[in-house]
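Filed under: proteins

Residues; backbone shape codes:
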Amino acid sequence: MSAFKDAVRSDIRSVFLNLEEFGEMHKVAGKSMCVIIDENELTEREKKQFGRGRDGVYKKALLLYVAAEDFGRLPAPEQVLLLDGKKYLVTDANNEDGIYSISLEAGRS
């Protein structure tokens, strides 16, 4: 592995998923772990993709960032994931150099 990749992996815990900086403890899939929950980024992405004012059922969407080694296997789309006791559907999941970005959605009427 290159020095840059080593530095990025080291920054996962010391910078990105640091409880004193960005990270927060949440219960994910039955385990407590440090994560970042971003409710705005996914909304902004959807606005660009679909435009404003979609009719129908409102769906709460959020983006979850978690260390791959804490989470385990990358979840598949359509998989149900429990976050703080609430059920969400995985709509997308990517491994971004040791951090998973997991797009989640929960339906609301």
